[in-house]
Design a protein that fits this description.
By secondary structure, the chain is an all-alpha fold. The chain contains three helices and no strands.
Length: about 80
């Protein structure tokens, strides 16, 4: 358990950041799943729209430091290739 006032504050700050990161990571995963579901269904227009939203979500997560920039780039590339197929 934290003994100092600053250590207690750090625990609170870390908890807030963890919740924020979880929320953003979860919404990004959901966007990716929507793209794959639309591709599996064969709906090209829906897949392209979901891809646009997924790329936006991935970029935002990367800018906040939740994903490494190379990881974000890889995910976008994989989704783009999936929709193009």
């Amino acid at each position: 358990m934290a003994n100092t006032k600053s250590a207690k504050k750090r625990i609170n700050v870390i908890a807030k950041k963890t919740m924020r990161n979880k929320s953003i990571r979860s919404s990004t995963k959901t966007a990716i799943k929507k793209v794959t579901a639309a591709c599996d269904a064969g709906d090209k227009a829906q897949a392209q729209e979901c891809l646009r939203l997924a790329v936006k979500a991935i970029d935002q997560a990367a800018s906040k430091g939740i994903f490494h920039k190379n990881t974000a780039s890889r995910k976008k590339s994989q989704l783009t290739r999936l929709v193009a197929k």
